[in-house]
Structures are given as C-alpha cells and as structure tokens.
Specification:
The structure holds 3 protein chains of 3 kinds. Chain A is α/β, with parallel strands linked by helices. Chain A contains 9 helices and 10 strands. Chain A has a single domain (3-194, 206-241), classed as P-loop containing nucleotide triphosphate hydrolases (Rossmann fold, 3-Layer(aba) Sandwich). In chain A, the strands form 2 sheets. Chain A has a 6-stranded mixed sheet with strand order 6-7-8-3-9-10, sandwiched between helices. A 4-stranded antiparallel sheet of chain A has the order 2-1-4-5. In chain A, helix 5 (140-152) runs parallel beside helix 6. Chain A is globular. Chain B has a domain at 1-82 and 221-280: P-loop containing nucleotide triphosphate hydrolases (Rossmann fold), CATH 3.40.50. Helix content of chain B is 37%, strand content 24%. The two termini of chain B are 35 Å apart. Chain C has one domain (36-303): MetI-like (MetI-like fold, Orthogonal Bundle), CATH 1.10.3720. Chain C contains 12 helices and no strands. Classes of the chains: A alpha/beta, B alpha/beta, C mainly alpha. The A-C interface holds A 51, 53, 72, 74, 76-78, 81-82, 84-86, 89-94, 96, 98, 103-104, 107-108, 129-130, 132-134, 136-137, 147, 150, 154 and C 16-21, 23-24, 28, 195-197, 199-206, 210, 214-215, 218-219, 301, 304-306.
Chain lengths: 248, 280, 306
C-alpha cells in the first residue's frame, strides 16, 4: 500500500521554542490515523505544518508521492483540506453558508458550483434550508457540519481534523463523528485526526501516535491500545485518565 | 455524612433573562437539596446548569431575574437577605470555582497576595499569619514549591497550577459549600485527575458540600455521590451516581450511550433522538 | 397594507432560515435598521442629513434669489425679514439662497473626501495589517508622518502648494484625513488576521490579495463607516476653515466657510451675515455626529450579531 502522507524528521520552531522535534509518520492511503497528546504536545502544530500554516524549519512532507516545498501550490489544497477545532471561530461571521461554500469553488475556478454546493449540504445532512443562513443562525453542530462541507467541496483525498468535536456537546459529538466516518467511507478519504481523547481516537482511527512535548512517545494500533498493550508509562497514564475519576 | 438538615435547599428555581427578542427562561423550576455531599449537575450547553450554580452563588448577570419558592443555605433565605449579607456569605461560607483560572484570578496581583487578601477580608488575622496560612493552603492543593508560587503572577503558571491556586483561594476562608463550574474542563486529562483528587480530599476532610457542574456525565458519575441531570432548564432525572447504569430517562441514557468508549466498538455511535416532550 | 401583511413581512425578514441570498441580506439589513432606529437621536441625525441632500438636490427650486448676483443698490446688509429670511450680505445677496446653494458645496466636499480618503485608509491599513513585517513597518511609518502634523496645517501646506480653490481644498483634506482610517483598518485586520476563518480561507488556496479584498475588508468597513461619519463634522469644519482663510472655495462661490469669512467684518453690527452659515455648519455637523453614533449601535461588529 502506498503512503498518502508521510512526514520525515519534521521540526517546527517558534521564536526559539521547538514545538516539534523531528517527528516522522506515515499515513497509508485510505487509512485513518490518530494523533493523541495533551496541550503543548505538538499534535496540532503537526497538522498546521502540513498545511503550511506553521513554518517547518527542517524535514520533508510528502503528499501522494509529491514532496512539498516551502510554499504550498494551489493544487495542494485540492488534495488536502482541514477541519478546525472551534466551529464558532472557523466560519466567517459576515458570510452566508452559500458564500462560504462558494469561495473555494471560485478560487479554484470550478464550474459546476450550484450542484456541488447542494450535494455538499446534503452530504453533511443539512439540506437546502441552511444554504442562506449566517453562522450565528446555526448551532455548534450545524456549524461544524458546514465546516466539513467546506472542506469536502474541493473533493480532497486527505482530510486533516483538528479536534473536530471537542467544542461540541457529547450528543452532537456522536453525530459529527458518525458523519465523518460516513463521508470517509463514501469518498475513500484518508484521515489524520488530532484529539486529546483516547476514546475518540480509538473509535475513529486504525493506528495512532502518542505525542508529548513535541516528540513521538510511541506508535500503536487501535487494537493494541484497546488491549492495553502499550509500552510507555505516559500512554498508560493517559489510558487511566480516560477511564474517569477513581477515588484513591 | 449526617444530613439530617440539608445544607442547601433549592425549590422551584427560575432564572429568566430579558433579551431583545423577549424573555429567555434559562432555568425553569429546578429543585434539589444538598447535604454535606458531592452533587453533580450534568447537562449540555444551554441546559441551565451554570445558571443554576450562579443563581445559588448570587452572581447572575444584572438583566437576569431569579425567583424560587425556596432558596435556603443553612436555613438562611438567600433571596431575602441584603446584598451585603449575601456578599459576606459569598467567599466566607459559599465559594465558587470557575472553568478557566485565567479569567477569575486578578492578572496584576501575585497569587499569594490574592489568597492573603481573600483571607483578610473574611477574617481578622495578622499579615504574617495570613501568609503562613496561604502557604499552607497552597501546600494543601499539592503545589510543590509554595513559596515560589506565592510570588508568581497568574500568567506565569500553567493551567493546572492556576486552577489549584484558584481552589486554594476559594478554600482559604473555609467555606461550607463549594460550587465548581466545569473546574477541570480546560485542563489536560492527567492534570484533571490531580485536581479532582485534591478537591475530593478537601471536601472529605473539611466536610463541605460540593456542587460539581459539568457536561461530562462519565466524569461526574465517577466523582460525585449524586447526579442531577438537566435538560432545557429542567431537571429530568436525579439519581445516585452508582445507579447511573439504571438511569430511566431516555436523555440520561442517550447521553451515557453516545460517547465513544475504549474497547466498545459501535459504528455508527448511537445518537440522541431529542424528544420535544423532554423540554415540556 | 393590512396589519397581517406587515406582520408576515417582518417575519419573512427576521426568518432564521432564509430561502434566498436576497432574503438573507435583507434580513440582516433589517436587523441593523431596527437597531439604528431604536436610537431616536440617531434617527434625527439621519433626517438632518437627508434634509441636506434634499436641499442640495432642489437648490434651484428652493432658493428664491441668485446665489452669486446681488442687488447692490437696494439690498445691502438687510436684516432678516419676510423677503430675505436670513438677511442679505454686503454685496446685496440673499443669504438664505446662498446657504441653500452652499449645501451643494458642503455635500461635494464631504462626499469627495469620503470616497478618496476612506478607500486609501482601508487599503493601506488592511495591507499593512495582513502583510506584516516590512510592508507594515513602511506603511505605518508613512501614516505616522502624516499623523504628526495638525490636520489643518498640513492641509494649508497642500493648498499653498496646489493653489487655492475648492477642488484643491478637497484634495488636501482627503490627503490629510486617511491616516486615522489606516490605523483603524490595521487594528481590525490584526484582530481577525489570525482567526480560524481567515486561516480556513488560506487553506482554500486563496491569494493574499483575495483574502484582504473579500474577507478582511468587509469586516473593517463597518468600523470605518462609523469613523468616517463621525469625522464628517471635522471635515466640514476643515473645509470651512480653509474657506475662511481664503484658501478653499473662492468668492463668489457660496461656500459656508467662505461666507463666514466675508461676514466677519460685520459680525458685531450685522451678525446674521456670519451667523447664518455658521448655524448651518453647526446643524449639519451635529447631524453627522448623531448619525455616526447611531451607526455605531447598528453596525458594531462587537455587539453580537443579532
């Protein structure tokens, strides 16, 4: 199987602070891969470095066999898209859903806009009634659905998900996770998903990487994690913490 | 736990906001009572759980109207006491911890001074003694180097440390009732457990009543003795945390069910089918 | 129109689920309008400005006499009367007619300054804010240089260089009034530049030019409109000041500032010659200020969306 996305020795430095210290990973085509860690572990920085939002100081990133340069070409964004954590912050406050979805199509000069917008809205379970609403007329879950529709409208093959449900209520989280699984199956997408929640990662991903302080702690398969077959203490701590409070 | 007399009694509590588009009822007739125990209030955003906590604390926004058949703390009717008496109760006998210590600690004052000030507004103690007790309190919330943290400003400490400092500040006056509104949601999971452990020990040692407000049903049920589940401003179910598995209300069950669990493969996850009658 | 149709129209405008682009846009404007009219004084301001526009448009009908040709023989420095509502000036011209025609020049100045200065400020500010680094440093230092001089003194220098006349006065005022707009736009840009919704557009592959033009500028425009409206009074006063100093509109043009300047000589005995245009400036400036305050309530992006 070929690698859809591979990262080799990636370093990111912000004002002398090393946010990523030589991280490598490989995501196979069609796979769902999880990144787990606490704040400051560098998991979100890794996603941002792949998209070009964070500056990589060394290391290589390869997407579908192509090595990325310092700046991203327009074609890159038709391969890789991202869903942000905060649905309240990722939609432009002065634009309707229609306008938000039209923008990527306009940027890439795609002609069959009407059809694509309707299909995208249907696909994320919103339907036509939502097309001309502003972000403030939507609930958190609906906003995140719009963000997913926006990411899908360019028909990328890789979707980067940065804690896509951590700002949502539990019941809405389940709906959004189901939606993500469904679009992945239908569109044969590759996922790279960041979360601090081990349960979500094992639910969504086949393999995962545990990160701490900008470094890789270990790489596991979901079944290894479920069977508690982990080799690092840090991962064990995370596992214990995810089971809720235990009175000592 | 000798709760012959309830520490807090809430009966038919209503919180209503006047907005541009009309009245919004955030809390609609909530009743529960609390002894010296850990009570969890669980609900999703907009369920009115935070507004319930704020109404008990007396820190609702000015445009909110709070009314209740009974809102009594240790026999004192909270709705009829004067504002100054209410202030005296607040901090002295009732304390509140909020989600993000960044917003509730004064950014320009050192952590130590804030704790000392809090203590000195509630008790007449000398500066030296206040400092000693503040350091003790910091030690009690498991801050390893209290003397150093004492002289730091809130922005110089991590989120977990800030939340511990916040707890220290709230506990210094020895309150009998603590309201914790999502006290650990902004923290990393491992730090979260440390903070909960500290809170748990302090509540047990001091015999406080604790109201733990959270969206996380699983966390609350593992931490509290009793759980109140809220939906759309109302209590839909009250039960012992240990009996959560036997919850009857479909909302509680749905909420428990819809979270992914390690080792339980369910694709797709069950989702909550919200019934309009739940909110009725 | 029956009560029901008004009711249903309002519901259509306030709908949470607009069915078309137009309904969404109209609904948004309607909410802003309601917020605006909730402020009575702002509404008064709007009426004053509308009255100014109407007077300027219908000056030919409203003015009973010529604005430039007077009756030197019979009507010099007459006090206000039924024939000459605001009296006449030293050249026997009807002051009321001159003020009515003068409203055209006031509007001319205000509109030209707004359409020259605001876009320059918006462009400089958003580009500086979004690009950052050297671009920002250079653009903002240029802005600082302009801001370092008092507006009127700088305008005087420009008019002195360009030659007196109302067009040059407008140009001078425009050149001196864009820096605050650049500052505001830059500040707004800095607050939104790092937001996720701008990052999301970057991840669509949008060019910096497109991001600034289509995503950042619309967010700066409301605070800019508010500021420009509040500045209008100042612009009118600066134009009047230049006219007063003889560097703006040249006689016999009925510009209000110039009129005050020529009335100055009789201010003690024939107060109406300078008083009437002064009062006109006062009313219009007040109108713009009230309007600006109302717009702040209606358009402020920070006051929540609905």
């Amino acid at each position: 199987m070929t690698a859809a996305l591979s990262v080799e020795g990636l370093e990111v430095v912000f004002d002398r602070f090393r946010a990523l210290k030589g991280v490598s990973l490989e995501v196979r085509e069609g796979e769902s891969y999880g990144l787990v860690g606490e704040s400051g572990s560098g998991k979100s920085t890794l996603l941002r470095a792949i998209t070009g939002l964070a500056p990589a100081s060394s290391g290589t990133i390869t997407v579908n066999g192509k090595v990325l340069g310092k700046t991203r070409e327009k074609a890159f964004y038709r391969e890789v898209q991202m869903v942000f954590q905060d649905p309240y912050g990722s939609l432009h406050p002065r634009q309707t859903v229609d306008r938000l979805l039209q923008e990527p199509l306009a940027i890439h000069g795609i002609a069959d806009g009407e059809k694509r917008i309707e299909r995208a809205l249907d696909e994320v379970g919103l339907g036509k009634g939502f097309r001309f609403r502003y972000a403030h007329q939507l609930s958190g879950g609906q906003r995140q659905r719009v963000a997913i529709a926006r990411a899908l409208i360019l028909e990328p093959s890789i979707l980067l998900l940065d804690e896509p449900t951590s700002a949502l209520d539990a019941s809405v989280q389940a709906e959004v996770l189901n939606l993500l699984e469904e679009v992945r199956r239908r569109r044969k997408l590759t996922f790279l998903m960041v979360s601090h929640d081990l349960a979500i990662i094992t639910h969504m991903c086949e393999r995962l990487m545990v990160m701490q302080n900008g470094e890789v702690v270990e790489t596991l398969t979901a079944s290894q994690l479920i069977g508690h077959r982990v080799s690092e203490d840090y991962t064990r701590n995370l596992l214990r913490a995810s089971e809720g409070f235990v009175r000592v | 736990m000798n709760d012959d007399k309830a520490l807090l009694e809430v009966e038919d509590l209503h919180v209503t906001f006047a907005t541009r588009t009309g009245l919004v009822q955030a809390v609609r007739g909530v009743s529960f009572s609390l002894g010296r125990e850990r009570l969890g209030i669980v609900g999703e955003s907009g369920s009115g759980k935070s507004q319930t906590g704020r109404a008990i604390m007396g820190v609702t926004l000015p445009q909110a109207k709070v009314s209740a058949k009974k809102l009594a703390f240790d026999g004192i009717d909270l709705l009829s006491v004067s504002p100054s008496q209410r202030r005296a109760l607040r901090g002295n006998r009732i304390a509140m911890i909020l989600q993000d210590p960044k917003y509730s600690l004064d950014p320009v004052m050192t952590i130590g001074r804030q704790i000392v000030e809090t203590l000195r507004t509630h008790e007449k103690v000398s500066k030296a003694e206040a400092r000693e007790r503040a350091l003790d309190m910091l030690r009690a919330v498991q801050i390893r180097d209290p003397a150093r943290v004492f002289d730091l400003h809130p922005h110089e400490v991590s989120g977990g440390m800030g939340q511990r400092a916040m707890i220290a500040m709230m506990l210094i006056a020895g309150p009998e009732l603590m309201i914790a509104d999502e006290p650990t949601s902004a923290l990393d999971v491992t730090v979260q457990l440390d903070v909960l452990n500290i809170l748990d020990r302090l509540v047990a040692e001091r015999g406080m009543g604790l109201i733990f407000i959270s969206h996380d049903l699983r966390l609350v049920s593992s931490f509290c003795d009793r759980v109140v589940v809220m939906y759309a401003g109302k209590v839909v179910e009250q039960l012992k945390a240990s009996e959560l598995r036997d919850a009857r209300h479909p909302y509680t069950r749905g909420l428990l069910n819809c979270m992914p669990k390690i080792g339980f493969e369910r694709h797709p996850l069950p989702v909550l089918d919200r019934k309009p009658e739940w909110a009725a | 129109m029956s009560v029901e149709t008004i009711q249903s129209r309002r519901e259509w405008l306030l709908s949470d689920r607009p069915a078309s682009r137009m309904q969404a846009r109209l609904g948004r404007s309607y909410v802003a309008w309601r917020r605006f009219t909730a402020n009575r004084l702002a509404f008064v301001g709007l009426l004053i400005i509308l009255a100014l526009v109407v007077v300027a448009a219908l000056a030919g009908v409203l003015a009973p006499y010529s604005a430039t040709v007077g009756d030197l023989k019979n009507a010099r420095l007459l006090a206000p009367s039924a024939a000459h509502w605001f009296g006449t000036d030293d050249l026997g011209r009807d002051i009321y007619s001159r003020i009515v025609y003068g409203s055209r020049w006031t509007l001319y100045v205000v509109i030209l300054v707004a359409i020259i200065a605001a876009p320059i400020g918006l462009l400089v500010g958003t580009v500086a804010g979004y690009a950052g680094g050297w671009t920002d440093a250079i653009l903002m230092r240029v802005t600082d240089i302009f801001l370092a001089f008092p507006k009127l003194v700088l305008a005087l220098a420009f008019v002195a260089a360009l030659g007196p006349g109302i067009e040059n006065a407008v140009l001078a005022i425009a050149i001196t009034s864009w820096p605050p707009y650049a500052r505001i736009s830059r500040a707004e840009t800095l607050t939104v530049r790092n937001s996720d919704y701008i990052k999301a557009v970057q991840l669509m592959g949008a060019s910096p030019f497109r991001i600034v033009l289509r995503h950042i500028m619309p967010l700066c425009i409301s605070s800019l409109i508010i500021r420009v409206t509040l500045d209008m009074a100042g612009i009118i006063l600066t134009a009047a000041g230049l006219g007063f100093l003889g560097l703006g509109a040249q006689p016999p043009l009925p510009e209000w500032g110039t009129m005050i300047a020529s009335g100055r000589r009789f201010i003690l005995d024939q107060w109406w010659v300078a008083g009437a245009p002064g009062f006109a400036i006062l009313i219009v400036s007040l109108g713009f200020n009230l309007l600006g305050d109302g717009l702040r309530d209606a358009l402020d992006p920070r006051s929540g969306d609905q």
